[in-house]
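Hi support team,

I submitted a single chain yesterday and got back a structure, but I'm not sure I'm reading the token output correctly. Could someone confirm the output below corresponds to the sequence I sent? I've pasted both exactly as they appear in my results page.

Thanks,
R.
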Amino acid sequence: MPFSLSDEQKQNLVWLIVGFLLLALLVALGPMLSPFVAAGIIGYALNPGVDWIARKRIGPLRIPRFVAVSIMVLLLALAMLALVLIVVPLVLRQIPQLQAQIPPLLDQLNAFVSPRLHQLGIEVRLDMAGIKALLTQQISTSSDEMWASVLASLRVGGTALLAGLANLLFVPMVLFYLLQDWHPFLKRMQTMIPRRWAGRVNLMATEVDDLLGQYLRGQLLVMLVLAIYYSAALSAAGFDSALPVGVLTGILVFIPYVGFGLGLVLAILAAVLQFDGVYGLLWVALIYGAGQVLESFILTPKLVGERIGLHPLVVIFALLAFGQLFGFVGVLLALPASAILSVLALHVRREYLASNFYNRQP
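Hi R., thanks for writing in. Yes, this is the structure output for that exact sequence:
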């Protein structure tokens, strides 16, 4: 008997093929879609603020949504500008300090290492003068050489740089229009869901929205508390750069493990540049050790909540997997994406346990 498909099966097959073709197109257009993806993520975080402003009234008139969107985009731009103004002076101030500290640090290293290697029968003579001259020359590069290097990089990678700048400028524009039509866009997306799946998809979307909202609110509170803690603790220990290092450490916490590591490196560098001996390093170890305990055992469980909690091995795997697939952006999205996948996996598990395939007896 020849194999034949019903009309419904033929329609399902056609739409399945269309879906795979659309997915392949999205994969092919991946680099071009990056500003849209970035704008969508930022828009999801900013939309509650836009809704809150749009509900306010000035006298008898309600604030127009495009005004609310403009306010939120402006606040985001000011926050990014403030972050740049924190980072740049910190780097510019530490470069001369690093240049001045290199010779005594290398002398201390040579005095510490050489006798111990000699006791082990290893005769190694470090050319400290040559190392000092090389490092000092690299750090004290003249402005003309820096501009020449920048211009050479522009000539080699000018197209990639222009593309990156275009995407950077494109994101705010996409973000503005996306926030302006956020709710109509979601309604149009809901109408595209097959009616037989609409209830289940809406239920999962509600759970995901609640989970992500809890994650974002909790993560922002964790960042704020840790920024205050690290800034206050480093200031009490006498660090000159306590405020920028503390604020950066708090902000970078949203990148799991990587953020803490980068903040720790900044603090160690500040300690080496400012203090003699191990005084500064001991304070860094104490402050950042206590900060890690505070974040892991108090702030994250209380503010982010146990609902989004994932096993440490799952977190590490998610960071590696998303980083391999999507680069640095994937590292940023690893935890919220894993939380979304956990919701989907929960529903798939329920369907599997309720299926005839699972429950059928031999």
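A quick pointer for reading it: Residues 47 and 347 are 27 Å apart (CA to CA). Let us know if anything else looks off.

Best,
Support desk
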